[in-house]
Backbone:
């Protein structure tokens, strides 16, 4: 499929080696490479030069929208559209509306954060190619796409081998 | 230097972790599991029958009457929703506090939350008496005015709180499961399993960039779930506290309910975990005795918190000088329902005191029995709060008793059928310990070479 790119991948079996390999790959000038692991490896973001996730901004905005939506919903239905006198309480009974506003804040913020995660990770995705089935268990990989700057198969293969890769293969990712 | 005991026993490698946790999903179910499942499923069918009768014939089958308008359904609703809270506490609050021991129990505790909330959610819907009109609970434009829902009512706050809680807990749980589904998909030997778990894993591949976003969202969801879980039981307690009935109208209710919820939830986690350890012995290396001991400490602490709440309620009832308030409390302990009050006090306050002794905290049979007592005690706590306050209020001419019928028993017992069926299915179909979360804590308690401290 056209969505996926060809390239070369090295496979490692030790956590400290993959960290080293990721750092070295970045220092060699590659920018479009991916590091694949079965769990979040401590220190990997720094090794790959990944910036802090932008998702919290989405969470904040969605939370504010949820809060406002809760306020508008309760105010408009209780005080504007069809105001009903309940036990002589004010039509706009703000303290009583706070639970609704709070719950909608949380609901909007949580669902939008997950939506942002889906967008950022481009999931759901149907049957994406996998370099090695053990990558979701106990192996680690670095993948460099063919269109990355300074892509040279023999040079990359040599670098991966020197970094302790147990396997190097041409693949689609 | 303090030595940390390992969180995962047995010097596991990354591959061992994957193999161990995926094993129950991949092998043929054991006889024990099938036996339990058939039992739970039969109970579920019985439950469906009971609920069908209650819906078909009407609420009159249950013991609710004047003056006890709230009965088993509301009592059991609060019971189950409270149980759910421990799951969120373990998965979200302990995550924020960086309590690494939570990793191996978090998944199952969250599963318990989701199933307990599902079980609980049915009760208020059925208690309306005409569940086919339950969509009236939501504010939607309608042709009756539009006549909107009453946002000043705690019962409506409950609609929002419980539905938000159910949604967010399920999403949090599912996001945690995604990488593990990908693991099972990659190991799958047959096409069906590969397709099903592949779809569930959403095509997750675990690149460093993805993990970076993933960890951030996990933190955000934990941060949002923490105030959410506190708000839910606070709002459940508002159902009572916002009314003017003596015994309900107290400001202590929100913290008292939240403490009780954590208490009962941890008891349920211990009950389930002891059974999981028996049914799946490979999990003993992940859910260790240290884990169980920590949870037992929490049970004892929160047990004393609720004990303190019982005492201060009594004190304030006397100190307030309000004769109705005072009467309700004396009636609770020494009236016709006094037995239920003392069942509650013994199960919730006295029995957990056993956990002062380390031997008791680390004994599986003892903790199993204690956790069952706590479950019973916490159901009775909600019974005491609901029924004893309602059955004798201001006017003696208005007094009565709850007419417990065998349909009440059926509803209560049957709800366990629903919960256990879901839980047993979960143990078979989902990885019951978070694979991706356990791997980073494997080294805790071991030195560089992998040996024990």
Residues:
């Amino acid at each position: 499929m056209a969505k996926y790119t060809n390239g070369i991948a090295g496979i490692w079996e030790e956590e400290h080696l993959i960290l080293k390999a990721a750092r070295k790959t970045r220092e060699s000038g590659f920018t479009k490479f991916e590091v694949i692991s079965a769990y979040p490896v401590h220190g990997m973001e720094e090794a790959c030069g990944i910036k802090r996730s932008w998702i919290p901004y989405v969470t904040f905005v969605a939370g504010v929208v949820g809060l406002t939506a809760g306020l508008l919903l309760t105010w408009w239905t209780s005080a504007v559209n069809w105001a009903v006198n309940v036990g002589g309480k004010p039509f706009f009974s703000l303290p009583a509306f706070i639970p609704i506003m709070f719950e909608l804040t949380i609901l909007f913020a949580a669902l939008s954060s997950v939506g942002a995660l889906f967008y950022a990770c481009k999931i759901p995705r149907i049957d994406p190619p996998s370099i090695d089935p053990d990558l979701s268990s106990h192996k680690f990989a670095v993948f460099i796409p063919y269109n990355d700057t300074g892509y040279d198969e023999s040079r990359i293969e040599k670098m991966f081998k020197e970094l302790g890769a147990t396997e190097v293969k041409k693949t689609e990712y | 230097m303090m030595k940390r005991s390992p969180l995962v026993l047995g010097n596991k490698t990354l591959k061992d972790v994957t193999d161990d946790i995926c094993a129950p999903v991949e092998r043929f179910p054991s006889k024990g599991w099938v036996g339990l499942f058939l039992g739970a499923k039969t109970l579920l069918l019985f439950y469906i029958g009971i609920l069908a009768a209650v819906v078909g014939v009407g609420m009159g089958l249950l013991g609710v009457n004047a003056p006890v308008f709230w009965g088993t359904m509301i009592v059991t609703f609060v019971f189950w929703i409270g149980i759910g809270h421990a799951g969120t506490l373990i998965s979200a609050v302990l995550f924020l506090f960086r309590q690494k021991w939570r990793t191996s129990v978090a998944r199952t505790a969250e599963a318990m939350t989701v199933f307990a909330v599902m079980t609980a959610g049915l009760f208020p819907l059925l208690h309306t008496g005409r569940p086919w009109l339950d969509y009236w609970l939501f504010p939607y434009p309608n042709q009756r005015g539009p006549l909107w829902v009453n946002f000043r009512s705690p019962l409506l706050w409950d609609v929002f709180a419980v539905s938000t809680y159910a949604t967010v807990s399920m999403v949090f749980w599912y996001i945690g499961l995604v990488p593990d589904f990908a693991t099972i998909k990659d190991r799958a030997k047959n096409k069906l399993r590969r397709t099903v778990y592949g779809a569930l894993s959403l095509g997750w591949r675990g690149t460093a960039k993805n993990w970076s976003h993933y960890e951030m969202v996990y933190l955000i969801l934990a941060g949002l779930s923490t105030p959410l879980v506190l708000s839910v039981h606070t709002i459940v307690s508002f159902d009572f506290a916002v009314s003017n009935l003596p015994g309900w109208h107290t400001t202590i209710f929100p913290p008292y309910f939240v403490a009780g919820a954590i208490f009962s939830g941890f008891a349920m986690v211990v009950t389930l975990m002891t059974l999981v350890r028996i049914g799946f012995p490979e999990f003993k290396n992940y859910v260790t005795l240290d884990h169980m001991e920590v949870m037992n400490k929490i049970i004892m602490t929160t047990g004393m918190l609720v004990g303190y709440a019982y005492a201060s309620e009594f004190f304030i009832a006397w100190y307030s000088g309000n004769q109705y308030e005072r009467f309700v409390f004396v009636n609770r302990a020494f009236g016709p329902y006094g037995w239920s009050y003392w069942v509650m006090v013994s199960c919730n306050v006295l029995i957990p005191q056993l956990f002062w002794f380390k031997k008791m905290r680390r004994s599986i049979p003892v903790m199993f029995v204690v956790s069952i007592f706590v479950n019973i005690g916490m159901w009775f706590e909600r019974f005491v709060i609901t029924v004893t306050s309602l059955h004798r209020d201001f006017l003696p001419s208005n007094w009565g008793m709850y007419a417990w019928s065998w349909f009440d028993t059926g509803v209560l017992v049957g709800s366990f059928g629903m919960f256990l069926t879901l839980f047993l299915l979960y143990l078979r179909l989902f990885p019951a310990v978070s694979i991706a979360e356990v791997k980073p804590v494997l080294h805790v308690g071991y030195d560089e070479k992998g040996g024990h401290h």
